Amino acid sequence: MATPLSHLAVPLALTAALGSDIVPPELMALALVCAALPDIDALGLWLGIPYEHPFGHRGITHSLPFAVALAGAGTLLAPALGADPLATFAVLLVSAASHGLIDALTNGGLGIALLSPFSHQRFFLPWRVIEVSPLRPSALFSRRGLDVLRSEMRWVWVPCLAVAILGMVLRGLAGQ
Ligand SMILES: [Zn+2]
């Protein structure tokens, strides 16, 4: 896993880039949930579900089909969120799908079941540039934790910040 903070950077960047007209606070809150939700499978480790099991860590909840289903379900709430359905689907899909893809950039653990439930094969992306985060949060307060945060800053936070600033500049130029 990457740290929860880095997964949340994606919906925060989308919100900043697109602005509150497209991403009202209610949609941002749901997008934050969608970005963090896949790691709910870490609970399975404590319940005795093996890491490599389809329902194990980095299994089905980290897959792209799961992200599509989650975004689809969330889109049903679009009217209540005060957001456009298409924008809602897109923001939730990017937020949810980014979780597995960011984890697929890490250099530890098992791969990500990106195609589950259609295939249980585990994948990494060709660039495993992010230091894998320890599963125990307390281990983040160590030298290794600093290495993890430094690599996430470089490969997640800085690109997210760039997207946010680019979106804000483009919206400014468009006079919105
Ligand atoms: Zn994860």
Task: Provide an overview of this structure.
This protein has 176 residues and is mainly alpha-helical. It has one domain (4-169). The protein is built from seven helices and no strands. The chain has helices at 4-18, 25-36, 43-47, 64-75, 78-81, 85-103, 143-173. Helix 1 (4-18) runs antiparallel to helix 6 (85-103), helix 1 runs parallel beside helix 7 (143-173) and helix 4 (64-75) packs antiparallel against helix 6 (85-103). It is globular and about 50 Å long. The relative contact order is 0.18. The mean pLDDT is 93.
Write the layout of secondary structure elements.
Blueprint: H1 4-18, H2 25-36, H3 43-47, H4 64-75, H5 78-81, H6 85-103, H7 143-173
The structure holds zinc ion.
The site of zinc ion has 6 residues, from helix 6.
Structural class: mainly alpha
Distance between the termini: 37 Å
N-to-C order of helices and strands: HHHHHHH
Q: Which segments are poorly predicted (pLDDT under 50) over 5 or more consecutive residues?
A: none
What is Rg?
16 Å
Helix content: 55-70%
Q: What count of structural domains?
A: 1
Could you give a short description of this structure?
With 176 residues, this protein is mainly α.
Features:
binds zinc ion; globular; 176 residues; mainly alpha; single chain
